């Protein structure tokens, strides 16, 4: 709307100036003094050309063609032509761009903090005679992590679908699987593959036979002396097969442990991106006191974790032991396929067997499922902190001004003003009154009898007016003070045509 208003104002201002100047140039062009000074001959039909040029596009083109671009009036005709492109080129003056702006919801938080936890103790005791057991949500997370192919990341709340959050820390679960070397011994019946005295499989000779074994490593030194890491599970998995009389085998030692992770989360058009920027494993066991249970407390974590001041991140020893007992039961099993007869000890053993070709990805899914559980059902020391709240943005339209195109209207206006002063000077030099487009001078000007006689014979004939228009004419001031139109040359006289003299005629 603003652009249209500016263009309209510029066009009206220029139109008034230019139209008046072109009309005045008509009087200057036919004046006798101008014709004598410039050695040109004006024709009667030139009045029509100047009038049409002051009114529209085609008339301006015709005037430029008639004057060969060498007369002062051609400036005005050119401006008239250019102003017809205002509406088209005005769209180039501004551009509407979409940029994100902060969205504020007065009723509720538009981008609340992501789920996170500082403390984990999600265990319960059913009765005094049983050990502590994991709550169902944690068991479900472990089951899902072992079996499922894809685990979704936790989806934060974002009112606009475009949000960003500061880096935030949370308790999580980390894991890793490292390849192990396999020892193979063969005899007439089959081959024995082993990675330790307690973990081995026998694959009978036969194309396509398979065997798999997974076993928790209870004798692992790190399980006896935790040191600086809170291990939740350590197990080894061995898979062997025979194809085309050749045996092959793979083995991994895998571990799960409690850790801290710092997350960088953002949402763009409803699509969430979440990256783990920092992981931290170092813990210290603190004995139980009246204030807390025996716990693995994370220590010496770096500033990149962006933790709260005086924050404390810990997991109870009893929770670590409960998860380890539960995982030991699931990671103890076997799978075999002999001549197409498939048998396995449990669904968990089959799922781990199926994950052996891409063990790293399988471990990522398991740790993601458990990390989601820690973030969902863990506890926080300070529930009211707003440090980790995000900001929501929405796309808003902004007007971008293209200053190069903004030169267009003022430049045309400046040329129009220049054209105005040039026309005034030309009128003063040739002693032409300021009549512009007024029709009254025509009524009070005298017409030479020879012109009237020509009109009497041509007015009613076919193309008679066209022939009359080719007669030369000049406007001069008589001694009596009256203005008179005088004939100069006939239509057959070549002087009635504008000579191609390459100098400016004003």
UniProtKB/TrEMBL annotation:
Lineage, broadest ranks: Eukaryota, Fungi, Dikarya, Ascomycota, Pezizomycotina
Transmembrane domains' residue ranges: 403-428
Protein name per UniProt: Arginase family protein
Species: Cordyceps fumosorosea (strain ARSEF 2679)
Classification via InterPro entries: DUF3176
Classification via Pfam families: DUF3176 (PF11374)
PANTHER family named in the record: DUF3176 DOMAIN-CONTAINING PROTEIN
Organism domain of life: Eukaryota
Keyword check for Membrane: yes
UniProt KW Transmembrane helix keyword: yes
